[in-house]
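Extended Data, panel c. Modelled sequence:
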Amino acid sequence: MRVLVVEDEQLLADAVATGLRREAMAVDVVYDGAAALERVGVNDYDVVVLDRDLPVVHGDDVCRKIVELGMPTRVLMLTASGDVSDRVEGLELGADDYLPKPFAFSELTARVRALGRRTTVALPPVLERAGIKLDPNRREVFRDEQEIQLAPKEFAVLEVLMRSEGAVVSAEQLLEKAWDENTDPFTNVVRVTVMTLRRKLGEPPVIVTVPGSGYRI
């Protein structure tokens, strides 16, 4: 899942991004509304975590623009105000969810995951294919009932492949969904991660390389 965090309190923004990355999400961070509009114009995000009171361009205007463009991106709006009227106003702007500050990080994560599921075709909460079970919420992976410990990026790549339901996923698509914008697009990080993931998943191999196209399960 790819997430954009838009928050002018830089310590909070960076802390949220670090936490979401530990949950195997690809996260970009910006600190004002103008930068947010620039990012959503060039990158495809599953979820935007959007502070309402932003400098340069207000969060309300960022939300309106995302809605006007007809993007499948879901918006989780944050605000320091907990008034019901503010929450209602935010939802009427087109936000998909609303979370007042201060918030528990576990709740933020759960809401981001729930919104991320709404950007794609509905799938069961636990993904199963080729003897593998992947639970995105618990961040658990089992093969033939034996748990497998994966690093965050390995988990993210496996989740993308599982969600494709047998379709081929290109290296570029994996890079877009599992890494942030600071990753060099010419790096071999996808190939190395897939190779490590194959080894951890064991025999017989379940990740198939489709020459010139990408990977599938």
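The mean pLDDT is 89. This feature is highlighted in the accompanying rendering.
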